[in-house]
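Q: My labmate handed me this sequence with no annotations at all. I'd like to see what the chain might look like in three dimensions before we decide whether it's worth expressing. Could you predict it?
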Amino acid sequence: MASDQVAMFTFTLAGDRSIGPAALTALWRQACGTRDVGVDRKESHREGRPVYTLYAPRQLQDLHGVEMRLRALLESASLNASVSPVYR
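A: Here is what I predict for the chain of 88 residues:
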């Protein structure tokens, strides 16, 4: 993650589903419309499953549109995700 990037969204996946870093990065780039993104995955004892964090530049525009594309892309990949915006 570059220093000019901030967390935009976190999400967990239902059940035992997961997504690798390369696939997640590609999906996130498509949702953002930029290659300047970062992704992270951390195990969460509270959630009982991994929590994924998506990073993008502070000045990313149309955050609502990005969120809608992200949700649609996760759904089309058959990934039932609980997405939470961080940028608000």
